[in-house]
Amino acid sequence: MTALQLTEKFGFEPLAMPAPDHPVNGCYIGDLLSWVMGRAQADNAWITIMSNINIAAVAALADTGIVILAENVTPDASVIQTAQAKGINLVRTPLTAYETAVKISQDI
Predict the structure, then answer these.
(1) Residues β-bridged to residue 100
(2) Which of the chain's ends, N or C, has fewer CB atoms near its CB within 10 Å?
């Protein structure tokens, strides 16, 4: 499944979608950025409530397929601009991280 397909299928709100064809396989939930860098795998959907500028850098280093901001987290405009510039797909959902992972787990 691609980032765009995942976004559309589950009704996530796109904030930045510069790489809509990036494959998404598996899922990682985490808010401690150093753990995400060391444990998230390439093409994972990364679910977090973190909204600072560093999520774009971590997502780029880990080569995640998409970053899903849970609980309707709203990042600053600079975070969205940085995600766009770094090729990071960024969406949000009102669901909790757990609810999001359960919802998408059967499809990725």
Answers:
(1) none
(2) N
